[in-house]
Amino acid sequence: MTRFAGRRVLLAGGGSIGPGVGNGKAAAILYAREGAEVFVIDRNPDAAAETVSIIEAEGGRALAHTADLTRPEEAQGAVTRMLAGGGIDVLHYNLGTSVKGGVVETAPEDWTRVFDVNLNAAYHLSRAVLPAMEAEGKGALVYVSSLAGLRSGPYSYVAYEASKAALQRMAQSIARVYAEKGIRANVVLPGPIDTPHVTAIVAPDADPEELAAARARLVPMGRQGTPWEVAEVALFLASDAASFVTGVLLPVDGGMSL
Ligand SMILES: NC(=O)c1ccc[n+]([C@@H]2O[C@H](COP(=O)([O-])OP(=O)(O)OC[C@H]3O[C@@H](n4cnc5c(N)ncnc54)[C@H](O)[C@@H]3O)[C@@H](O)[C@H]2O)c1
């Protein structure tokens, strides 16, 4: 399939936090399989390089770029470098982090860190990308949020929930303002997905098998999703197949939001 032939995709957080395949890495690989040139941005140079080497080994086209996207000048620098080589057809925003706890348990520095990664970096990148897309009169933005941006889960991680809800609202605001300019913005809301991110960030102390079983029990389909299932939905939203779709919050959750 060549749904993205000739398209250039900025993949923010296209590495993986640990061994295996996360949501960002899967999306980068699928865009490349569909013919896109993928600009893989990650603050971890090895993680970005690994994704690029997988894509190149499959005969695809990708470029690694190291940046901490919570820094406005680094987000702008990444966009400027990508624009120097052509346009940007798709911004795929995958960054996300979390800290467990309610408002009382969450330290101010953790609150700020989670908002920097989940929301502020998305703002910096969107702000850098949108003028170029507007000049072209086209573009698609896809933000990876979470079901936690809509509703409570089994425990509170309020900084995550609040920052993802704000990300969703930002995306919908962009969608409304830029609809008449040919630019679409949509949001993917994964439920529990089996990725290295979960063992590394969400529950580093848990037994991996018990954790996986407990997460699967939350889902009506009785299993966790895969990063490929999240990526497929994101690609649909970024593609011309979704040309009349903007501002949607699309759960990819095995029925968990029902
Ligand atoms: N796995 C799940 O169950 C689940 C559920 C809901 C939502 N999500 C969302 O999926 C996304 C995570 O997907 P993943 O599996 O690819 O995660 P991941 O942690 O494996 O990959 C994210 C990449 O982003 C990079 N990164 C982090 N901060 C950065 C920064 N400031 N600048 C540049 N790069 C940075 C990391 O180095 C990492 O390589 C998050 O948005 C998360 O909220 C995951």
Which terms summarize this structure?
alpha/beta, Rossmann fold, seven-stranded parallel beta sheet, 8 helices, globular
Q: Spell out which ligands are present.
A: nicotinamide-adenine-dinucleotide
User: What class, by secondary structure content?
Assistant: alpha/beta
Question: Helix amount, in percent?
Answer: 40-55%
Q: What's the structural domain tally?
A: 1
Low-confidence stretches are none
The total count of helices amounts to: 8
Helix and strand element order: EHEHEHEHEHEHHHE
CATH architecture: 3-Layer(aba) Sandwich
The whole-number mean of residue pLDDT values reads 97
Description:
This protein has a single domain (8-252), classed as NAD(P)-binding Rossmann-like Domain (Rossmann fold, 3-Layer(aba) Sandwich), CATH 3.40.50. It is built from eight helices and seven strands. Helix content is 45%, strand content 15%. It is an alpha/beta fold and 258 residues long. The two termini are 32 Å apart. Nicotinamide-adenine-dinucleotide binds at residues 13, 15-17, 22-24, 42-44, 47, 67-70, 94-96, 117, 121, 144, 146, 190, 192-193, 195-198, 227.
Q: Short description, anyone?
A:
45% of the residues lie in helices and 15% in strands.
SSE blueprint and pairings:
Layout: E1 8-12, H1 23-33, E2 37-42, H2 45-57, E3 61-66, H3 72-84, E4 90-93, H4 108-136, E5 139-144, H5 158-178, E6 183-190, H6 196-202, H7 208-217, H8 227-238, E7 249-252
Parallel strand pairs: 1-2, 1-4, 2-3, 4-5, 5-6, 6-7
Bound molecules: nicotinamide-adenine-dinucleotide.
